[in-house]
Design a protein that fits this description.
Order of helices and strands: EEEHEHHEHEHHEHEHEHHEHH
Strand content: 5-15%
Largest sheet: 8 strands, parallel, barrel
Shape: globular
Number of strands: 10
Low-confidence stretches: none
Radius of gyration: 18 Å
């Protein structure tokens, strides 16, 4: 698996990262969760993304991480988020940031990257949420800090010089963030979430189904690709992206995604077709929040 620098953080991440949101489901057993996480590590994935709002995800990821040797753990980059979800503390306050980092560290053993999770713009611009983030980084509690989200808050965060990393939507049907990243990232690491866009070719519940039906109403003839492969290779090799995140509970889906990324950049013909299908609607298809 190709390793890339996560911006200027000094951390390296695999081109494909694991989105651990699906592992928080109560429908998934503890043994199944452990198995897929260990397989991801064995396949060369080094970046794992979670959040306290993802059910049991942090706890399950933490259990596996704490079982690794120091050398094994040092190869990995663990990303979590916050700004909410601490008992007895008001959301989007400096205290919830500081305590959220400590809470995540207890669950995960160590946090490498801590992101504000879809923080509203009106709270970002006040500026009081950044001192506790910067203090945690200075104290060595985290290696890097940043923002996860889309739209106007993402654009603002990209311009804020003290943030090291952003996580934003990048997929076949959601590319607004790519334009912002190319203009304003200024060396920040970029994690591409929703890389499969919720697989609208399989799931009618995806937020991108309507876009999919419009953009891909005509056959995609630029090469022969499964939709999963086309989507993951597009996101993983999009300009400025450090790692594309994929969440799954299926070992087969995980292995196929790793194999797809190892095949590298999509052919020019395929990229041109993807670009044409999105840019025809780009003014209306803003980043999905």
């Amino acid at each position: 698996m190709e390793l890339r620098p996560l911006g200027k953080t000094g951390l390296d991440v695999s081109a494909l990262g694991f989105g651990a949101g699906p592992l928080g489901s109560e429908e998934l057993g503890e043994e199944e969760s452990d198995t897929i996480l260990r397989e991801a590590i064995a396949l060369g994935i080094t970046v794992f993304d979670t959040a306290p709002s993802y059910g049991a995800s942090e706890a399950r990821l933490g259990r596996v991480l704490k079982s690794l040797s120091a050398a094994e753990r040092d190869r990995l980059v663990v990303v979590t988020k916050g700004g909410y979800g601490v008992d007895g503390v008001e959301d989007w306050t400096p205290e919830v940031i500081a305590r959220g980092i400590d809470q995540a560290t207890d669950r995960l053993g160590r946090v490498d990257v801590f992101l504000l999770h879809s923080c509203p713009l009106d709270r970002l611009v006040v500026g009081d949420l950044f001192p506790p983030l910067e203090a945690a980084r200075k104290a060595g509690k985290v290696r890097a800090i940043g923002y996860s989200g889309d739209g106007a808050p993402l654009a603002w965060s990209l311009r804020y010089p003290e943030l090291d990393v952003v996580e934003c939507s990048v997929n076949l049907l959601d590319q607004e963030a790519l334009g912002k990243v190319s203009q304003f990232a200024h060396g920040k690491g970029v994690l591409a979430k929703r890389a499969l866009a919720g697989a609208p070719w399989r799931h009618s519940s995806s937020a991108y189904v309507d876009r999919w039906r419009i953009a891909y109403a005509t056959p995609f003839v630029a090469g022969k690709f499964d939709w999963d492969e086309l989507a993951i290779r597009f996101a993983a090799f999009a300009p400025g992206v450090s790692a594309a995140l994929m969440g799954t509970r299926e070992l087969d889906h995980l292995r196929r995604a790793v194999s797809a990324v190892e095949r590298g950049v999509l052919p020019e013909e395929a990229l041109a077709s993807i670009d044409h299908r999105f840019t025809a609607h780009a003014e209306d298809w803003l980043g999905v929040i």
